[in-house]
Amino acid sequence: MFERFTEAARSVVKGAVTHAERTDADSVTEEHLLLALLDLRGTRSAAAFDALGVSARRTSVESALADARRRGGLTRADTEALAGLGIDVTEIVSRVEAAHGAGALSGGRKPKRRWSSHRPFTRPAKDTLERSLRVALGRGDRHISDEHLLLALAARPGVVADVLADHGATYTALERAVAGGPSGDARAS
């Protein structure tokens, strides 16, 4: 499937690995794919982010992703469902962090020994890459580009889609913005 990726899409995948390495993450996640997309310039996804004002609020996006990690990766829907059962996620996070330290639920624990510098993609990140192919084919495109990866992220329920939606980048808004973006295939800057 990687042979169908355009230069921009390959830059996203490589950038996601770089983000994972930079944060010493054990694996490459959807969050890393989103951050790599935010790094691009001169592409359809970059134009969509600019049109929706997401690029200007990168710090807010990163903060929202960090907050979700702090909650153990629970989505807004998960948090609301638990609240409906009388479970206050904020209170639970506070208690866990009081007992085990800040970020205890963020999955930051490392294995005792890493035998390889290779960082595998998580199942949700792999699903996003596979979904990008379906998005491309559904739009009549033969190649997978950065906009297909972005639309695949927005289409898949989860923290990344929640964060995008909270910043005005719903699937529908992104689809409209991508349609008006440049056709260039620039690399990340």
UniProtKB/TrEMBL annotation:
InterPro entries: Clp_N_dom_sf, Clp_R_N. Pfam families: Clp_N (PF02861). Residues 2-185 form the Clp R domain. Residues 103-123 are annotated as: Disordered. Keywords: Hydrolase, Protease, Repeat. Residues 109-121 have a biased composition (Basic residues). It comes from the Bacteria. Transmembrane segments: none annotated. Coiled coil: none annotated. GO terms for biological process: proteolysis. SUPFAM superfamilies: Double Clp-N motif. GO terms for molecular function: peptidase activity. This is Clp protease N-terminal domain-containing protein. It comes from Streptomyces lavendulocolor.
